[in-house]
């Protein structure tokens, strides 16, 4: 009897060890799904099919990986906000698989976004996705996101002070990390220095030379979101901002570590995030933890949380925990629930309420700067170079 029990325990233990070994070896294939079954990486259509004005953009990440993106504009000279959109983990920037298992086009969502928000949209293909080269990983995708933001910051046909990062599911983790890594930056086109008396602490100055040959100074500044809103207005006619003005998170998880226990319950005893009660003895083996819960608390920009309560992939409690993490110190956070929203179709199930909520958030926190607004505060103090 003892030998039988021992053999059974060894057998179960062997299966568990083998299963974990497979999870470790193939974890990237579980987290990242660039190509859906039965499909290819190529794009069957382009934004032109939906009569959207766009351009193909080719980028190089910091490690040299060639990336593809679409820059879709409302009108040729649109100076409205620009949404930097980061997609989910499955499918290309063009298509995803919906909860009903039919193929739908992300472009349709983008078409509505452009119309309702009066914005431009930049859609990046992560490395290994779509027409981009390379293989996906957290370290690599973080570099890809930075390359996309750097590209937008160098464009002269958009208002670089009105860049809004929008991430859904995995894209929310990507967007949160990018926003945290890019604190407020102010670009001066003048050759002089910067002096101000608005209580802004200048941390360091980086000299650069612009693509047009002009000498530029990028000043990293540390300030709260209230000051930032008015600083943008004061400096409207003197300086150009390069900034992530706001962040939108939709159906995003707290971490891949926590999601491992959601998708494969037995793993919660070995892998978990900061809020997990398990021993977490295998956390060190996870190469793409995407710990959003540890990132959002370091973000000072306004954040809009869009949560679908029927999400069948990411428990809605994850979004609630993300909001609770940041709301204690960031007063410009908004949490909105959509009772019928599932993981991929909250924008559709939410209907007019979804788009009105997003539009109002952008109007309130990423306002258009009027040309007549000067570089003086209410007391007449000026900011000069």
TrEMBL record:
GO terms for molecular function: palmitoyl-(protein) hydrolase activity. InterPro entries: AB_hydrolase_fold (IPR029058). The keyword Transmembrane helix applies. GO terms for cellular component: membrane. Signal peptide: none annotated. Keywords: Membrane, Transmembrane, Transmembrane helix. This is Serine aminopeptidase S33 domain-containing protein. It comes from Salix brachista. The lineage of its organism: Eukaryota, Viridiplantae, Streptophyta, Embryophyta, Tracheophyta.
């Amino acid at each position: 009897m003892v030998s039988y029990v021992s053999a059974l325990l060894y057998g179960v233990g062997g299966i568990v060890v083998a299963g974990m070994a497979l999870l470790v070896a193939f974890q990237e294939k579980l987290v990242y799904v660039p190509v859906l079954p039965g499909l290819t990486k190529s794009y069957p259509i382009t934004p032109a099919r939906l009569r959207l004005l766009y351009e193909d953009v080719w980028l190089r990440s910091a490690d040299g990986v060639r990336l593809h993106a679409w820059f879709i504009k409302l009108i040729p000279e649109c100076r409205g906000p620009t949404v930097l959109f980061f997609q989910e983990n499955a499918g290309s920037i063009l298509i995803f698989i919906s909860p009903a298992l039919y193929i739908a086009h992300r472009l349709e969502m983008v078409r509505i976004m452009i119309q309702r928000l009066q914005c431009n949209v930049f859609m990046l293909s992560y490395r290994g996705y779509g027409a981009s080269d390379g293989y996906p990983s957290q370290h690599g995708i973080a570099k890809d996101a930075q390359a996309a933001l750097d590209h937008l910051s160098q464009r002269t046909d958009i208002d670089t002070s009105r860049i809004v990062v929008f991430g859904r599911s995995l894209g929310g983790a990507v967007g949160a990390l990018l926003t945290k890594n890019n604190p407020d930056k102010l670009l001066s086109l003048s050759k002089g220095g910067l002096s101000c008396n608005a209580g802004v602490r200048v941390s360091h100055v980086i000299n650069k030379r612009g693509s047009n040959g002009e000498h530029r100074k990028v000043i990293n500044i540390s300030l709260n979101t209230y000051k930032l809103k008015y600083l943008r207005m004061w400096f409207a006619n003197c300086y150009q901002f390069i900034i992530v003005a706001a962040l939108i998170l939709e159906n995003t998880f707290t971490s891949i570590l926590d999601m491992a226990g959601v998708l494969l319950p037995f793993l919660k005893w070995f892998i978990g995030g900061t809020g997990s009660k398990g021993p977490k003895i295998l956390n060190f083996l996870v190469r793409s933890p995407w710990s959003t819960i540890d990132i959002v608390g370091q973000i000072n920009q306004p954040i809009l949380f869009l949560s679908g309560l029927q999400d069948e992939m990411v428990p809605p409690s994850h979004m609630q925990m993300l909001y609770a993490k940041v709301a204690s110190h960031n007063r410009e956070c908004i949490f909105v629930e959509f009772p019928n929203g599932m993981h991929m179709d909250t924008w559709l199930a939410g209907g007019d309420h979804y788009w009105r909520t997003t539009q109002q958030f952008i109007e309130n926190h990423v306002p258009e700067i009027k040309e007549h607004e000067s570089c003086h505060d209410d007391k007449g103090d000026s900011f000069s170079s």
